[in-house]
Specification:
Largest sheet of chain A: 6 strands, mixed
Distance between the termini of chain A: 51 Å
Oligomer: homodimer
Number of domains of chain A: 3
Strand order of the largest sheet of chain A: 2-1-3-8-7-6
Largest interface: A-B, 110 and 110 residues
CATH superfamily of the largest domain in chain A: MoaB/Mog-like domain
CATH class of the largest domain in chain A: Alpha Beta
CATH architecture of the largest domain in chain A: 3-Layer(aba) Sandwich
Strand content of chain A: 15-25%
Radius of gyration of chain A: 26 Å
Structural class of chain A: alpha/beta
Number of helices of chain A: 17
Number of strands of chain A: 17
Helix content of chain A: 40-55%
């Protein structure tokens, strides 16, 4: 099996001031063509560290992809390190990249400086893959077995995540042109609303029945729920897909409506599909989720076809004046109550004129708890032509995670209520 | 200088299905006590990989922190690998962790299973740091120089980010009790609205004047802008802080009102502080940012003191009916226009009764562009007692990044308008 390592370069990663999202993105792209990532590493912006880390990666795997350290500023030195490592003797200017740099600077109204021009220079031993949306080109090296113990391909990509995302198809194409690749096949079953340990117990017998070459992993996430990833190695595509079909069908039978989808989906995409099937629309009324529920729904391109808007009623005056929650309800039950979210959901549905609506009110923390309503309490409601359903959960986490879990739980209440026909 | 490595364990990381946020978090915590992270690595859930990667980390640095692979399910095998690596001979059950597991399961209404009990078992050579909010305990090992070439501390922490965040102070305390630590001091100057290369040119002379032991790094981010991090090594706290004071003052003088803050702040926190100083409130009217602007503002604990709410007007009917944008404006100028965002900002300010307001309307993409208004076009407005200011930008990125940059740019327009007294 062809293997790969990913090496992210930059003091800002080692010092923890940015979170590396490139590694996950690149790894997914490699996995799809059957390349197994066996190692990930991060190193500092120092010649010595870059060279020793990249060399180690080259000895551990066939393909190595680095990101970062290609900016126009003095702290970016990846190019010089790779010049040395590859045995290049001079820099050559890439005309194609130079054209792109010019156009980018013009469109941004920025004057061309020497440091911009120098971004088009690359070591003579590399092949350039132009970076269409950024100034730093992608460098591709191939090394014979004599250099690092195996025949290697090395790619140096930019650190800016969306530039790496844009360029990855070209890198993947270059890898496919070079190697005869084995296959790995994955299937991910997405569940929401069952804790990891309960899930594990529930599918214990099924898990014990899996063949040797089929691997199961649990991937818990506040928004996506617990996803179960099945991976199969050493088969043809047809055999692999058949095995995955068989085992994922029996898994879905065990888990019932806790399963919301398969693969790279998420709850808000599934809800969008359910609404489009019905020609229906939805609106939201949010207190504790503070716009995050609206954000999850509008993250999806094309969501304007079914999502009409939100009233974020952070202050109680907005709940009363804009959503029409009665003062009596607020006084008698408080805003974190079944009664209040019911009125919020019904209010926004009427005001915005949508088929369905979702409302949230809770205590995201860190402050604001009472004996009856601890931090992490959420009341949520979904409303539709057949009526309104309310529900509550307690999430024991940080403010940020509580907000995520609140929004995801409210989406899940809508999904289950749409499927069961309760609203 | 005492050094550390961070090793994240899990197939889900190597396969790219989750993004590792633990490494950045842990690294920040280590940096604060003067420990330099020299290496980060990720490895798969296999005994061989865990042992070889952790051993390499132990040889490269004094402290090693691993996260992940401690769940109750079969694919989590870190504990067995560390049992072997540490030369432990048996598992012992931690009473303290067992108590915590019991309470967590009770509070979640989950029945105790054998796999839950086994989470309290640890190798006999380790010391337990209880995980107060999760089921997997933190394991602390100390190894003599004979084992890996230097005296080491090894900590195994859970993979769930908020559990790691909760437990890190205890780990830091254990490290401080063991080592006599050198110091590194950092200072971060946060800027918004200047491109990295322009910024670099602007501060070139200043940068060239920095002493050898003062290192500068550029950290670009769509929401936080370009942050400039100064790090100083090999000084006393007093000397270090004085040097950082001197160089950051001269830097701020060069950059003027592009600087919005220092350290671990963000634009929405700075805006919150400006509003609280004035006893003022703010509301938002969002189209293309779809609730994300509201989310940024409400991410901050205590934001309910100045943030009253948002009308997310994703559908034009909401702009007209709820925000009071005139049909004529929509027909004549379109919704992505100075005129429309002006009416949105003024509409929401009046409707929600706040001192100030922010409005956004644009094209986040990928579809929806016209020759006059390309994808990535944003119109934004801020309104206050003195009037309304509008502005536009074009962001050439993905939908997700465009939404982030749109929201951050609108916040920056409010910040600059508040400071200049224009609204």
């Amino acid at each position: 099996m062809t293997t790969a390592s990913i090496c992210t370069i930059g003091d800002e990663i080692l010092i923890g001031q940015i979170t590396d999202t490139n590694s996950a993105f690149i790894s997914k792209a490699l996995g799809k063509i059957g390349i197994k990532v066996v190692h990930m590493a991060s190193c500092s912006d120092s010649n010595k560290d870059i060279i020793s880390t990249v060399k180690r990666c080259l000895r551990m795997s066939d393909v190595v992809i680095t990101t970062g350290g290609l900016g126009p500023t003095k702290d970016d030195i990846t190019k010089n390190a790779l010049m040395k490592l590859s045995g290049s003797t001079r820099m050559v200017r890439s005309r194609k990249q130079m054209e792109i740099i010019k156009n980018i600077l013009i469109s941004r109204g920025i004057q061309m400086l020497d440091i911009n021009r120098m971004q088009a220079d690359v070591p003579d031993k590399c092949k350039v893959i132009p970076n269409k949306i950024g100034t730093a080109p992608i460098m591709q090296f191939t090394f014979p077995k004599e250099m690092f113990g195996r025949e290697n391909m090395l790619f140096s990509m930019p650190g800016v995540p969306f530039e790496t995302e844009e360029a990855i198809p070209d890198v993947i194409a270059a890898i496919q042109a070079h190697y005869k690749l084995d296959k790995i096949f994955h299937r991910t079953i997405c569940t929401f609303g069952i804790a990891e340990s309960v899930l594990s117990k529930k599918i214990e017998d099924w898990e014990n029945s899996l063949p040797q070459n089929l691997h199961l992993a649990y991937l818990p996430n506040p928004i996506l729920g617990v996803r179960l990833r099945l991976s199969i190695y050493g088969t043809t595509q047809k055999e692999g897909e058949e095995e995955l079909d068989r085992y994922s069908s029996s898994l879905k039978e065990i888990l019932g409506d806790a399963v919301y989808g398969e693969g790279e989906t998420n709850p808000q995409t599934v809800i969008g599909e359910l609404l489009l099937e019905r020609g229906a629309t939805v609106s939201t009324a949010e207190s504790c989720t503070g716009g995050y529920l609206a954000h999850l729904l509008t993250e999806i391109a094309g969501s304007s076809r079914y999502y009409w808007g939100s009233v974020v009623s952070y202050d109680n005056s907005v709940k009363i004046n804009t959503l029409g929650v009665s003062t009596k309800t607020v006084e008698k039950y408080g805003v974190v109550s079944s009664q209040c979210v019911k009125e919020m959901a019904e209010g926004v549905r009427k005001k915005l004129g949508t088929t369905y609506s979702i409302a949230t009110s809770g205590i995201a923390g860190p402050g604001g708890d009472t004996p009856e309503k601890p931090v992490g309490t959420l009341w949520m409601a979904v409303s539709g032509p057949k009526g309104t359903v309310t529900s509550t959960i307690v999430s024991k986490s940080t403010r940020a995670i509580n907000i995520e879990r609140f929004a995801a739980s409210a989406l899940d209440l809508l999904r289950r209520s749409l499927i069961s026909g309760k609203i």
